[in-house]
Protein backbone atom coordinates (compact mmCIF):
# COMPACT_ATOMS: atom_id res chain seq x y z
CA UNK A 1 0.00 0.00 0.00
CA UNK A 2 1.33 3.43 -0.99
CA UNK A 3 2.38 5.51 1.99
CA UNK A 4 1.90 9.26 1.99
CA UNK A 5 5.13 10.99 3.11
CA UNK A 6 4.99 12.65 6.51
CA UNK A 7 7.66 15.05 5.28
CA UNK A 8 8.34 16.00 1.64
CA UNK A 9 12.01 14.98 1.95
CA UNK A 10 11.00 11.37 2.52
CA UNK A 11 10.06 10.95 -1.12
CA UNK A 12 13.13 12.67 -2.61
CA UNK A 13 15.23 9.48 -2.97
CA UNK A 14 12.40 7.69 -4.75
CA UNK A 15 11.70 10.61 -7.07
CA UNK A 16 15.38 10.97 -7.90
CA UNK A 17 15.85 7.26 -8.57
CA UNK A 18 12.79 6.94 -10.78
CA UNK A 19 13.42 10.12 -12.74
CA UNK A 20 17.05 9.18 -13.34
CA UNK A 21 15.92 5.73 -14.43
CA UNK A 22 13.45 7.28 -16.89
CA UNK A 23 15.61 10.07 -18.32
CA UNK A 24 19.22 9.06 -17.63
CA UNK A 25 21.70 11.78 -18.57
CA UNK A 26 18.84 13.81 -20.05
CA UNK A 27 17.69 14.68 -16.52
CA UNK A 28 19.14 18.07 -15.54
CA UNK A 29 17.18 19.26 -12.52
CA UNK A 30 14.44 18.24 -10.09
CA UNK A 31 12.88 20.87 -7.84
CA UNK A 32 10.10 20.67 -5.27
CA UNK A 33 7.83 23.73 -5.27
CA UNK A 34 4.59 24.80 -3.62
CA UNK A 35 3.39 24.05 -0.09
CA UNK A 36 5.87 21.18 0.24
CA UNK A 37 8.70 23.68 -0.08
CA UNK A 38 7.18 26.51 1.96
CA UNK A 39 6.93 24.73 5.31
CA UNK A 40 3.13 24.48 5.07
CA UNK A 41 2.91 20.87 3.90
CA UNK A 42 0.01 18.88 5.40
CA UNK A 43 0.34 15.09 4.88
CA UNK A 44 -2.69 13.67 3.11
CA UNK A 45 -4.01 17.12 2.21
CA UNK A 46 -1.17 18.88 0.40
CA UNK A 47 0.10 17.78 -2.99
CA UNK A 48 3.82 17.41 -3.65
CA UNK A 49 4.71 19.38 -6.78
CA UNK A 50 7.89 18.73 -8.74
CA UNK A 51 9.44 20.69 -11.59
CA UNK A 52 11.58 18.41 -13.77
CA UNK A 53 14.04 19.88 -16.26
CA UNK A 54 15.24 17.62 -19.08
CA UNK A 55 17.00 18.01 -22.42
CA UNK A 56 15.19 18.03 -25.75
CA UNK A 57 15.99 14.34 -25.99
CA UNK A 58 14.47 13.78 -22.57
CA UNK A 59 11.15 15.18 -23.73
CA UNK A 60 10.89 12.16 -26.05
CA UNK A 61 11.03 9.84 -23.05
CA UNK A 62 7.94 11.07 -21.20
CA UNK A 63 6.16 7.73 -21.64
CA UNK A 64 8.76 6.15 -19.34
CA UNK A 65 7.02 7.90 -16.42
CA UNK A 66 3.68 6.17 -17.09
CA UNK A 67 4.42 3.18 -14.79
CA UNK A 68 4.96 5.53 -11.84
CA UNK A 69 1.93 7.77 -12.15
CA UNK A 70 -0.61 5.63 -10.27
CA UNK A 71 1.71 5.07 -7.32
CA UNK A 72 2.67 8.75 -7.18
CA UNK A 73 -0.97 9.73 -7.19
CA UNK A 74 -1.62 7.56 -4.13
CA UNK A 75 1.22 9.37 -2.35
CA UNK A 76 -0.23 12.81 -3.23
CA UNK A 77 2.56 13.47 -5.73
CA UNK A 78 1.07 15.67 -8.45
CA UNK A 79 1.83 14.96 -12.08
CA UNK A 80 5.37 16.36 -12.51
CA UNK A 81 5.81 19.54 -14.52
CA UNK A 82 8.35 18.47 -17.16
CA UNK A 83 10.03 20.98 -19.46
CA UNK A 84 13.34 21.97 -21.00
CA UNK A 85 15.47 24.85 -19.74
CA UNK A 86 14.87 26.79 -22.96
CA UNK A 87 11.09 26.35 -22.65
CA UNK A 88 11.21 27.68 -19.09
CA UNK A 89 13.15 30.81 -20.04
CA UNK A 90 10.97 31.44 -23.10
CA UNK A 91 7.86 31.21 -20.89
CA UNK A 92 8.98 33.73 -18.27
CA UNK A 93 7.33 36.63 -20.08
CA UNK A 94 4.05 34.69 -20.39
CA UNK A 95 3.83 33.11 -16.93
CA UNK A 96 5.98 35.30 -14.67
CA UNK A 97 3.64 34.93 -11.68
CA UNK A 98 3.72 31.14 -11.68
CA UNK A 99 7.49 30.97 -12.03
CA UNK A 100 8.04 33.70 -9.44
CA UNK A 101 5.90 31.72 -6.99
CA UNK A 102 8.01 28.64 -7.73
CA UNK A 103 11.19 30.64 -7.17
CA UNK A 104 9.92 31.95 -3.83
CA UNK A 105 8.96 28.49 -2.55
CA UNK A 106 11.29 25.77 -3.82
CA UNK A 107 13.80 23.15 -2.72
CA UNK A 108 16.41 21.67 -5.04
CA UNK A 109 16.12 17.89 -5.04
CA UNK A 110 18.87 17.04 -7.52
CA UNK A 111 20.79 18.70 -10.33
CA UNK A 112 20.91 22.42 -11.04
CA UNK A 113 18.98 24.94 -8.93
CA UNK A 114 17.20 26.17 -12.03
CA UNK A 115 14.89 28.65 -10.26
CA UNK A 116 17.15 30.76 -8.05
CA UNK A 117 18.66 32.74 -10.93
CA UNK A 118 15.38 33.64 -12.66
CA UNK A 119 14.77 37.35 -13.32
CA UNK A 120 11.32 38.78 -14.07
CA UNK A 121 10.20 41.76 -16.14
CA UNK A 122 7.89 44.18 -14.33
CA UNK A 123 5.80 44.97 -17.41
CA UNK A 124 5.13 41.30 -18.10
CA UNK A 125 4.31 40.76 -14.44
CA UNK A 126 1.83 43.64 -14.40
CA UNK A 127 0.11 42.49 -17.61
CA UNK A 128 -0.40 38.98 -16.31
CA UNK A 129 -1.53 40.30 -12.93
CA UNK A 130 -4.23 42.41 -14.55
CA UNK A 131 -5.41 39.54 -16.76
CA UNK A 132 -5.42 37.01 -13.93
CA UNK A 133 -7.23 39.12 -11.33
CA UNK A 134 -10.06 39.97 -13.70
CA UNK A 135 -10.44 36.40 -14.93
CA UNK A 136 -10.38 34.95 -11.43
CA UNK A 137 -12.85 37.54 -10.17
CA UNK A 138 -15.28 36.58 -12.94
CA UNK A 139 -14.93 32.89 -12.07
CA UNK A 140 -15.44 33.66 -8.39
CA UNK A 141 -18.71 35.42 -9.16
CA UNK A 142 -19.82 32.53 -11.38
CA UNK A 143 -18.97 30.08 -8.62
CA UNK A 144 -21.00 32.12 -6.16
CA UNK A 145 -24.05 31.95 -8.41
CA UNK A 146 -23.58 28.24 -9.05
CA UNK A 147 -23.34 27.57 -5.29
CA UNK A 148 -26.89 28.85 -4.77
CA UNK A 149 -25.63 30.17 -1.44
CA UNK A 150 -24.99 26.74 0.11
CA UNK A 151 -22.39 26.94 2.88
CA UNK A 152 -20.51 23.78 1.87
CA UNK A 153 -20.26 25.00 -1.72
CA UNK A 154 -19.06 28.43 -0.61
CA UNK A 155 -16.39 26.91 1.62
CA UNK A 156 -15.25 24.75 -1.30
CA UNK A 157 -15.08 27.84 -3.49
CA UNK A 158 -12.92 29.63 -0.94
CA UNK A 159 -10.58 26.64 -0.70
CA UNK A 160 -10.31 26.35 -4.49
CA UNK A 161 -9.68 30.03 -5.17
CA UNK A 162 -7.61 31.37 -2.27
CA UNK A 163 -4.19 29.97 -3.23
CA UNK A 164 -4.51 31.47 -6.71
CA UNK A 165 -5.22 34.89 -5.24
CA UNK A 166 -2.25 34.55 -2.88
CA UNK A 167 -0.02 34.12 -5.94
CA UNK A 168 -1.37 37.44 -7.19
CA UNK A 169 -0.54 38.96 -3.80
CA UNK A 170 3.09 37.97 -4.41
CA UNK A 171 2.99 39.70 -7.80
CA UNK A 172 1.73 42.92 -6.19
CA UNK A 173 4.54 42.87 -3.65
CA UNK A 174 7.05 42.29 -6.46
CA UNK A 175 5.77 45.33 -8.34
CA UNK A 176 5.96 47.40 -5.16
CA UNK A 177 9.52 46.24 -4.55
CA UNK A 178 8.64 44.33 -1.39
CA UNK A 179 10.13 40.83 -0.88
CA UNK A 180 7.48 38.10 -0.68
CA UNK A 181 7.57 36.10 2.59
CA UNK A 182 7.38 32.31 2.55
CA UNK A 183 4.48 32.07 5.02
CA UNK A 184 0.96 32.43 3.65
CA UNK A 185 -0.19 34.32 6.73
CA UNK A 186 2.72 36.73 6.52
CA UNK A 187 2.04 37.17 2.81
CA UNK A 188 -1.55 38.13 3.58
CA UNK A 189 -0.50 40.59 6.28
CA UNK A 190 2.22 42.23 4.16
CA UNK A 191 0.01 42.58 1.08
CA UNK A 192 -2.94 43.96 3.02
CA UNK A 193 -0.65 46.43 4.77
CA UNK A 194 0.65 47.61 1.39
CA UNK A 195 -2.75 47.67 -0.31
CA UNK A 196 -5.24 48.61 2.40
CA UNK A 197 -7.18 45.34 2.21
CA UNK A 198 -8.79 43.67 5.23
CA UNK A 199 -6.32 41.00 6.37
CA UNK A 200 -8.87 39.53 8.78
CA UNK A 201 -11.08 38.39 5.91
CA UNK A 202 -8.26 36.61 4.11
CA UNK A 203 -6.90 35.06 7.32
CA UNK A 204 -10.32 33.59 8.11
CA UNK A 205 -10.51 32.26 4.55
CA UNK A 206 -7.10 30.69 5.07
CA UNK A 207 -8.45 29.01 8.21
CA UNK A 208 -11.10 27.39 6.01
CA UNK A 209 -8.50 26.41 3.42
CA UNK A 210 -6.38 24.73 6.09
CA UNK A 211 -9.41 23.23 7.90
CA UNK A 212 -8.38 25.17 10.99
CA UNK A 213 -11.83 26.67 11.57
CA UNK A 214 -15.43 25.65 10.88
CA UNK A 215 -18.15 28.17 10.13
CA UNK A 216 -21.91 27.69 10.12
CA UNK A 217 -24.17 28.73 7.24
CA UNK A 218 -24.69 32.32 8.39
CA UNK A 219 -20.99 32.85 9.14
CA UNK A 220 -19.89 31.29 5.85
CA UNK A 221 -22.32 33.34 3.79
CA UNK A 222 -21.21 36.52 5.51
CA UNK A 223 -17.52 35.68 5.15
CA UNK A 224 -17.86 34.87 1.48
CA UNK A 225 -19.57 38.20 0.86
CA UNK A 226 -16.66 39.97 2.55
CA UNK A 227 -14.16 37.84 0.62
CA UNK A 228 -15.76 38.74 -2.71
CA UNK A 229 -15.86 42.41 -1.73
CA UNK A 230 -12.14 42.41 -0.84
CA UNK A 231 -11.26 40.71 -4.13
CA UNK A 232 -13.22 43.41 -5.97
CA UNK A 233 -11.19 46.03 -4.07
CA UNK A 234 -8.04 44.14 -5.01
CA UNK A 235 -9.05 44.35 -8.68
CA UNK A 236 -9.43 48.13 -8.36
CA UNK A 237 -6.01 48.33 -6.68
CA UNK A 238 -4.44 46.48 -9.58
CA UNK A 239 -5.99 48.99 -11.98
CA UNK A 240 -4.54 51.84 -9.89
CA UNK A 241 -1.16 50.12 -9.86
CA UNK A 242 -1.25 49.95 -13.65
CA UNK A 243 -1.87 53.69 -13.83
CA UNK A 244 0.98 54.39 -11.41
CA UNK A 245 3.41 52.27 -13.42
CA UNK A 246 2.37 53.85 -16.73
CA UNK A 247 2.53 57.38 -15.33
CA UNK A 248 5.40 59.42 -16.92
What layout of secondary structure does this protein have?
Blueprint: H1 12-23, E1 27-33, H2 35-38, E2 49-54, H3 66-74, E3 81-83, H4 85-91, H5 96-104, E4 106-111, H6 122-147, H7 151-175, H8 184-195, H9 199-209, H10 217-246
Parallel strand pairs: 2-3
Antiparallel strand pairs: 1-2, 1-4
Helix pairs in contact: 5-7, 6-7, 6-10, 7-8, 7-9, 7-10, 8-9, 9-10
> Strand percentage, roughly?
5-15%
Query: What structural class do the secondary elements suggest?
Result: alpha+beta
- Please, what is the oligomeric state? single chain
Which blocks of ≥5 consecutive residues have pLDDT under 50?
A: none
Number of strands: 4
**Overall residue-averaged pLDDT value:** 93
CATH architecture assignment of the largest domain: Up-down Bundle
Order of helices and strands: HEHEHEHHEHHHHH
Major sheet details = 4 strands, mixed
Largest sheet strand order: 3-2-1-4
Radius of gyration: 19 Å
Text of the CATH class of the largest domain:
Mainly Alpha
Number of separate structural domains: 2
- Report the total helices: 10
- The helicity comes to 55-70%
> Remind me, CATH topology of the largest domain?
Four Helix Bundle (Hemerythrin (Met), subunit A)
The gross shape turns out to be: globular
Terminal CA distance reads 62 Å
List keywords for this structure.
248 residues, Four Helix Bundle (Hemerythrin (Met), subunit A), four-stranded mixed sheet, 4 strands, 9% strand, 10 helices, Beta Polymerase, domain 2, alpha+beta, 58% helix
